[in-house]
Structures are given as C-alpha cells and as structure tokens.
TrEMBL record:
Protein name in the entry: Mediator of RNA polymerase II transcription subunit 31
Record note on quaternary structure: Component of the Mediator complex.
Similarity comment: Belongs to the Mediator complex subunit 31 family.
Gene3D superfamilies hit by this protein: Mediator of RNA polymerase II, submodule Med31 (Soh1) (1.10.10.1340)
Organism of this sequence: Phyllosticta citribraziliensis
C-alpha cells in the first residue's frame, strides 16, 4: 500500500519525503545494512543519530502500518539508540546472531 501525500508536498526525485523515509527506515531491518552503517562510521555521526531518533515517529500506529517488517524495523530503531550496539554492530558475529534471531522469530 503506497502512502499518498497531499499535492502540496515537495517531491525529491519523484518521491515524497515520507516515501524516502519509509524506504530508509525499512532498510534498517537488515543486519548487514546496520553493519555497513557502522563500518562506514555513519553511526558515529551526531547528525545521523539525530535523524535515526527523528525516525521514531514510525512507532506510531498511523505510520507503523506502512512498514513491511514492523518488528525488525522498530527493534533496529531501538537498538540504534544504544551506544554499545552501535559499536558492536561492526562485528560479523553480531550480524550473524541478529540474522539467526530473525530466522527463529519468523518460523514461530
């Protein structure tokens, strides 16, 4: 289900800001993408962390309904608030554990 925006919303490359934020926040459900963000030092950037904090609006039901995988996406938003997690996500072992947890959760 695509989000429809009022006609007055500006477009960025043909997409609304909400559509771009939705696509980005959903990418956080991928542990390897979180690893990439950590390795590339995005998770050390205060501006980037402020943006992650801003994206917490997706926890609200009117926005969470647009998430394809709300559980892993919202969990990633919470984990990214933790300094320890941001430091440890560069570890392939942690990525593997997160993937394993996700597989276990999806088979229940």
């Amino acid at each position: 289900m695509a989000a429809s925006a009022p006609a007055a919303d500006p477009l960025y490359g043909g997409f609304t800001r909400f559509e771009l934020e939705l696509e980005f926040v959903q990418s956080l459900a991928n542990p390897w993408y979180l690893n990439h963000l950590g390795v590339q030092k995005y998770l050390d950037n205060p501006d980037f962390l402020a943006y992650i904090d801003y994206l917490h609006y997706f926890r609200q039901p009117q926005y969470a309904r647009f998430l394809t995988h709300p559980g892993p996406t919202l969990r990633a938003l919470e984990l990214l608030q933790q300094d320890r997690f941001r430091k440890e996500i560069i570890s392939p072992e942690l990525v593997g554990r997160l993937i394993e947890e996700g597989v276990k959760a999806s088979t229940k």
